[in-house]
Design brief:
single chain, 3 domains, five-stranded mixed β-barrel, six-stranded parallel β-sheet, 21% strand, binds S-adenosyl-L-homocysteine, 13 helices, 478 residues, binds FE3-S4 cluster, binds iron/sulfur cluster, globular, alpha/beta
């Protein structure tokens, strides 16, 4: 048993990050342990977790497990969890509770949790005490070892808890089973060293470590050969890419090299405003295959609160960056993340956030009420604001955000825009759904043969969160 340790998770030292190219392995005798059995992985949280799930699925299939259609019928259920806010945490505990009766009905069922909550010491302690029906807990640094953990659970019937709290390595040989044939996530870096005072990620994901550019470019060239149309470069703070490798090779350099490859669409998330350089803006503006869409989390518009959050930029600096981006890439869509009710946020501070929203007129935003996360500095800051007040602030903020979102979408009416059609629309089975270059969700009446292609769509109807359109004659790219 290896339990997570909060103190260790906070440490950053100068230990060199190892690039491990042969750590993951499936010995012959384990390659059939899932034979005749099915798995189901439920994913919570961000794109990083979604991509980890793609790795986990591939590992399970190398062990001969097959995907189950639903959780009720699976022989192995894994919850890939998120720790970012309390409601994510509560959802997972609710699900763990519900899984108890499944285990009672089918004692051979294997239940496990992984992901960011598994990295939390208090969560694992609670599981050990109260949730005896869980067979397996493994952390974000332990995915490569899943075959051996399952061996002990399945063959030796031993409960396994393996969560390393170390800073982390880069493991290059974990297989992947991608959810889409057209769009792919690519990790360019892991972890985060920013330690924003409210955020748990630096503890759950370890220190910032960039992948070698050769490994990233190799992965992309394989995807191009397989016919992928879009890649998204992933990291908690992609703009800091390379800083821990060779300081002369930056995110701007990586973006430029990737843009010169034959891939139709390049995206990247998430950009911390602090590391967003002029070189990056220039590269994004220069290459048409880098999509004009940037997620630029603001968090707060008050300098006082930004300082308490440890964000290391001011309102002025943020707005200047925003204006530079808009000047260089006029059609660029910009979205953001905002937290309301951070400890000590006054009505005046909150109004400053609303002021920035009035300046930036975002295309969209994810807005949150501050949620104290155990072990982070903000969790022990004094908090005078009532929940009622926080809810009202969130409501007022969302009203504004939605107005601007709708306004931004209105500009699309009767315009022709490129859309990568991905799947049958969730709201209407006669329509296909996809995204514009600027990341607007579009529903289009079109034949399923267009799935996986980038088509020209004329926008006919505008809503707050999506657009409806019709196919134009010309197909840009098949
Ligand atoms: N790496 C990204 C953010 C990842 S977390 C960045 O720095 O921009 C996604 C969002 O969750 C954050 O941008 C923040 O708005 C929100 N968030 C993180 N911790 C939170 C907390 N404790 N309470 C409320 N919202 C939080
Ligand atoms: Fe969290 Fe800040 Fe790192 Fe983003 S940059 S993951 S908000 S610590
Ligand atoms: Fe959640 Fe972990 Fe992502 S805490 S937001 S799944 S990095």
């Amino acid at each position: 048993m290896q339990l997570p340790n909060l103190k260790e998770a906070k440490i950053r030292n100068k230990t060199k990050v190892r690039i491990l190219t042969d750590l993951y392995r499936v010995p012959e005798e384990l390659s059939k342990i899932g034979f005749g059995k099915t798995y189901f992985v439920k994913t919570y949280g961000c794109q990083m977790n979604e991509h980890d799930t793609e790795n986990i699925k591939a590992i399970l299939e190398e062990l001969s497990y097959l995907p189950a259609n639903d959780m009720e019928n699976a022989d192995l259920i894994l919850l890939n969890t998120c720790a970012i806010r309390e409601n994510a945490h509560n959802k997972v505990f609710g699900m763990i509770g519900r899984m108890k009766h499944l285990k009672e009905q089918r004692p051979n069922l294997i239940l496990g949790i992984c992901g960011c909550m598994a990295q939390e010491q208090s969560v694992v302690e609670e599981i050990l005490q109260k949730y005896k029906h869980l067979d397996l807990v493994f952390g974000t640094h332990n995915i490569y070892n899943l075959p051996f953990l399952l061996e002990k659970v399945v063959q030796k019937k031993e409960r396994q808890i393996e969560v390393e709290s170390k800073e982390g390595d880069v493991i290059e040989n974990i297989p992947v089973k991608r959810d889409s044939k057209y769009k792919a996530w690519i990790n360019i870096m892991y972890g985060c060293d920013k330690f924003c005072t409210y955020c748990i990620v630096p503890y759950t994901r370890g220190k910032q470590r960039s992948r070698r550019k050769e490994d990233i470019l190799k992965e992309i060239s394989v995807l191009i050969k397989e016919g992928y149309k879009e890649i998204t470069l992933l990291g908690q703070n992609v703009n800091a890419y390379g800083k821990d490798l060779d300081p002369d090779y930056t995110m701007a350099d990586l973006l430029e090299e990737v843009a010169q490859m034959k891939i139709e669409r390049i995206r990247f998330v998430t950009s911390h405003p602090w590391d967003f350089t002029d070189e990056m803006i220039a590269v994004i503006a220069k290459y048409p295959n880098i999509m004009p869409y940037i997620h630029l989390p603001l968090q707060s518009g008050s300098d006082r609160i930004l300082k308490r959050m440890g964000r290391r930029y001011t309102k002025e600096e943020y707005i200047t960056l925003y204006q530079k981006i808009k000047a260089a890439i006029p059609n660029c869509a910009i979205t953001t993340d905002i937290i309301v009710g951070f400890p000590g946020e006054t009505e005046e501070d909150f109004r400053e956030t609303l002021d920035v929203v009035d300046v930036c007129k975002y295309d969209g935003a994810y807005t949150f009420i501050f949620s104290p996360r155990e072990g982070t500095p903000a969790a022990s800051m004094e908090d005078f604001i009532s929940m009622d007040e926080k809810n009202q602030r969130l409501y007022r903020l969302n009203e504004k955000i939605n107005t601007y979102s709708h306004e931004a979408n209105e500009k699309y009416l009767d315009q022709v825009v490129p859309v990568l059609l991905e799947q049958i629309s969730e709201k209407d089975e006669n329509m296909l759904a996809g995204y514009t270059d600027t990341m607007k969700l579009v529903n289009v009446k079109a034949d399923t043969k267009y799935i996986g292609t980038i088509v020209n769509v004329r926008i006919k109807k505008v809503k707050t969160w999506s657009l409806d359109g019709e196919l134009e004659e010309v197909v840009v790219n098949c």
